[in-house]
Fold:
Amino acid sequence: MTAPLLEIDDLSVGIGTMRIIKNLSLEVRAGEILGLAGASGSGKSMTALAVMQLLPQTATATGTVRLCGETLTDRSDAQMQQVRGRDVGMVFQEPMTALNPLMRIGDQVAETLRLHRAASAFEGRRSAREALDLVGLSGEQGALDRFPHELSGGQRQRVAIAMATVMAPPLLIADEPTTALDVIAQAQVLSVLRDLVRTRNMGLVLVTHDLAVIAQLADRVAIMQQGEIVEQGATAEVLRRPRMPYTATLVAAAELKPKSATRPPSSAAVLQACGITREYPRKRRTLWRAAPPLRAVDGVSLSVHAGETVGLVGESGSGKSSLLRVILALERAQSGQVRLLGEEFSSAKGANLRRLRRAVQAVFQDPYASFDPKWTVERLIGEPFFLLSSPPSEAERRRKVAVVLEQVGLSAADAQRLPQEFSGGERQRIAIARALITEPAVIVFDEAVSALDVLLREQILKLLAELAERLKLAYLFVSHDLHVIRALADRVYVMQKGRIVEEGLTEAVFASPRHAYTRALMAAAPKLQAN
Amino acid sequence: MNAASRNSSFAAGAVITGLFIAMALVSLYWTPFDPRALSIVDKLQAPNAHHWFGTDQLGRDVLSMIMVGARTSVGVASLSVIIGMLGVPLGLLAAARRGTIDELVTRGNDLIFAFPALLLAILMTAVFGPGAVNAIIAIGIFNIPVFARVTRAGALQLWTRDYALAARVAGKGPWRISWEHILPNLLGLLVVQGAIQFSLGVIAEAGLSYVGLSAQPPTPSWGRMLNEAQTLTALAPFLALFPGFAVLLFVLGLNLLGEGLRRRAERPS
Structure:
């Protein structure tokens, strides 16, 4: 039995009077992947930061953290700088902000190396190439000379991993490394991480709220709740037979049940898009030669029928968002038309456009950017009243806002508060309330649950199903998460490179996908239980 | 940076700035002496109990002149900031409409930025004659592209927020969204920029009046007091000292205030 690589012994962290981590003890061995799971705010990320001694200045920590038998907790910041990057590498959630946009990726990877030992430029470049090799990003000429904006999200995250591992640290900490990525990029990043651990006999702490990711990758799992580890053990064991009720709740929430009765649409179409093509102009190649426009959406047709939930799946960059903007009449398509309640919507103007807009509302992805921070909840939810030809009186407004707030599970008293006072899940409820206020026929959701953890996601999905039933709403639900689509949608469209490549009843598509891309998407999606 | 030093910079800035503005206001109704009254007998007195800041080569009371000079300084700087605010709607327009209009506004800004500000001010006063009004217009014109740029950059960022998208789904047009969502969220930024431009305006006014292109005699101004004191530095050094310190202290106060406001605006809400 070798000594553990990382030992956390009786760690407690507090900020002010709040105790964020309580008496936490953990071990990670070389070559082992430990999954650290829990809902948002459970102290997962704080634990990761505590290992790096990167806690916020206002935090106080007790307990010891040992790496390879050496205590880290009593080191000065200058000493820790030596440890960070050399002995422990770290990868964060957002690959865009983790990279310097003005530096070529080869230089960024080499920078870590050159900070820790006096490596020559040549040596740095060679090591950078090797590190990028390991994450599957080199090979072609000029790979090191590219800038972060030239890469996709998944590629950027792999660069971040290369930066974290170029010094071959014995321990790597990855904090939600795939949460911001779509399924295919996620599968690539996870396999890169797995290979690194195996070839280098490295220890990996994988912090995530996604149990399916942990099921795919981790040898052991520790479940955190409110700063404490409530359960830990071998991954398969814990996920299959959870001993603690909290773990069972998490597992149940992660394991979304496929929608039971999916039926073909029987009613009339409320929303119809026919042959939508949306192109964006690109920069001229030379003064004389215009570049061909970028065709983001290419002849897409889809329909949503009354009371039906339709899913739209595709990876990032497949044109989903552009399509949504056209459907919401926020952008004009080069060709094709959108019909709403049988009327032409895409070319409607003035009062007619506003009248039609009432029938289609939207909920966006980021619950933190969806609200003007200076407006009260009441004013925010009431904003679509602008679409009404005669706005309701003050008292009527207030009453209507109270009604929708209660419909989404908040209280009427919340109307006078500011959006910042609410958590991510509550904010998404406010966004739904705003979409309900004009009593629309269709609501469009753009990745509306992707930013939420599994428990909140389950609650919101349940709420959406209830509302659809009660208010006879139709949904167009856009997501890269196949589990969510499967749990919610009656019918599904699969989109790739601006085209719809497959459509059908959700169960039929999931049971026997016909298109190669659909099969690839399904294979890439992490599963909670091995089949 | 901790809360205490953030507040102290803001407090010090507010106190100094408030002092100068109060001084300018008081001078409207009362000064120790008439700043225009010549009294050759009393010329070039060193600071004393009677004339706190001494007297100049024509026997005028320096303290009274500094007080009235503050009026010129505050007036020119604040009016030129107000003129500069014309850049705010331009920036909002550019960010809301993008495309050709954006290009026109941005290139227009670049064009004005390409001229050295003081040079154009000199040109303007040469054509239209020197005076406080022309100084205000000259300095104000250079504030326009500054505000336009700051507004445009901030607005472009806010337009990418989902709440701008949500407002469009609610049927609101670019003007209404700019007014209801974009501008209120830019106010902090604009107030900070206003404080910075105000302090630059004070310096510019002093510079213009030093070369005789701002307020004309007999209206006292700090820049001209410095100019007149220049030849007398060996004889009466305090003459240059007081207006010099007035400019220095006022600008320092405004910068501290701007810095404090900026930190306040940055504080996560």
The CA atoms of residues 144 and 179 of chain A lie 25 Å apart.
